[in-house]
Amino acid sequence: MHEIAELALDEAVAAGASYADVRGVVAEHESLSVQDQRVEGVARQTSRGVGIRVLVGGSWGFAATARLARQEVLATARLAVQVAEASATAQRRPVRLAPVEAARGTWATPHERDPFDVPLPEKLEMLLAATAAARQVTGLTFAKASADAWRTTTTLVSSEGADLHQTVLQVAGGVECIAVGEREVQVRSFPNSFRGYCGSGGWEDVAALDLAGQAPRHAEEAVALLSAPDLPAGRDTVVIDGNQLALQVHESVGHALELDRILGWEAAYAGTSFVGLDDLGRLRYGSPLVNLTLDTTTPKALGTYGFDDEGVPAGRTPLVVGGVLQSLLTSRETAPRVGADATSNGTMRADSWASIPLIRMTNIHLEPGEGSLEQLLDDTGRGFFLTTNRSWSIDDKRVNFQFGCEAAYEIRGGRLGKLYRNPTYAGRTTEFWGACDAISGPQAWRVYGTPNCGKGQPSQVARVAHGAAPARFRDVTVGVR
C-alpha cells in the first residue's frame, strides 16, 4: 500500500497539484449477534483502496479507487486534479492550510489479543453464555448479545513530507435484556445501549466485561420496569449517570463545536450550530464546574489514534474551561478562520478510503469533579437518578433537546429507591449545563464509546467516545406532560 500511495502522490503533483495527500486504507469489520440460544448473524468484511486529495489553485479535488493496478491509480490521481480544477471555477475564497510539521513514523493501538485472531467459537460461546444467564430470570421475554471488532490500517503520505503507517484496533460487546408486557416493551442494556462497551484495544477488554455475570441483574430490572410507574412530569433535581451524560456531551457539545458546522458547511444535512466564532472566550457554556476537553490520546477510548487523516498528531485541547468556551474542533483548512496563528487540533477523519476527511469528534470528555457517587447522592437528598440512553432528539442548531433513558430511580434520603420507567428529560444546552452543581470524582469517571456518529453529505459514520461521571443538575424538566 505504501508503494501505491507514493505512486499516486507523485502523479498528482506532476499533474499540477500544489498540495496532495494520499490515504491507502485496509478496513476490516467483524460483527456477531445472538438472540437467546440462536446465532443471529456472523459477518466479516474487508475493504481496501486509496483516497487522493489535492489542492489546485486554492480549491480541493478528491478521487478514490479500489482498483489498485498501476494505471488505475495513476488515472485516479489525475482525476483528483481535474476535479480541483473544475472546483476552482466556482471558488469563493482560496483554501489556506494551517502549518503542521510533517510527521513520519508508525502507530498502533495497544492491545493483548487481536480480536480477529480469536477463534469464532470462543466469541460465540461468550455471547451465548450471556443470553443464557439472562433467560434464567422469570418474566424476561428474550435476550440479545453482540460483539464487534474493527481493524483499520492506514498509510498516509503527503507532498509536504508526511509518511505515516497507523493501525487502529477497536472492539465492542454487550447484552440487552428485553421484557414485553401487554402494552409495554422495556429494555435494560449492559454495559451501555447501542452495542454495549465500545473502545479501542483488544479482545481482552470484551472478555473482561463478564457479560454472563452481569446479565441477570439487568434482566431483573427489565422485568421490573414492566410494572413500574412512569416518571412523573415536572421540574426536579436529577443526577444523570455517566453513560447518559456521554450522549449529552456528544449531541450538545461535540457537534455544536465542530467548526465546519459553525461556518455553515454542514447546513444542508446535519445543521449548523448556535455557537459563533465571536463566542470564543466569552460564551458561558455551563456552570463553573463544567470543564470539557478534546483528547485523542485517552487510553482505550474509541476515538483514540496517533494521527488524524491530515497527519496532525493526537493531543489534548481544552474546549470549555470553568464553564467558558475556549476552543473549537478544527482542521488545517478551518483553523485560520479562528486566528492567524491557529493550528488544527487533529480532528479530520474519513470513514473509508472512498470518503474525503471531515471534522469529526474524537474523544470529548466532561472532566470529573470530586467525591464518590454515593457522596453526591447523599448530598442531593431528593431527586431522580437517570441511566442508560434509550432515545435522543436535538434541533439542528444544538439548542433544544429531549432525551429518553432506560430507567430512573427516585433519590430519597441520599439513597436510590423506587424504580420508574420511560424517563425523559429536556432542556436548552447552555441552561442545562449551567444548572450543573456537582460532578462525581475520578473514581466514578468512565469512557463510553459511540460507534454510529453520522455526519457529512454523502453520509459518513465515525466511532467516537466521551468520558463522564454522574453529575447533578437542578430544576430540570422531566417526564412527559
Notes on the protein architecture:
The protein has 481 residues and is an alpha+beta fold. It has two domains: 2-227, PmbA/TldD superfamily (PmbA/TldD fold, 2-Layer Sandwich); 234-478, no CATH class. 22% of the residues lie in helices and 39% in strands. It contains ten helices and 23 strands. Strands 1, 2, 3, 4, 5, 6, 7 and 8 form an eight-stranded mixed sheet that branches. Strands 9-16-17-19-23 form a five-stranded mixed beta barrel. It has a four-stranded antiparallel sheet with strand order 12-11-10-15. Strand 1 and strand 2 (38-56) form a beta hairpin. The model has no long low-confidence stretch (mean pLDDT 97).
Brief summary:
This protein has 481 residues and is α+β, with helices and mostly antiparallel strands. It is 22% helix and 39% strand.
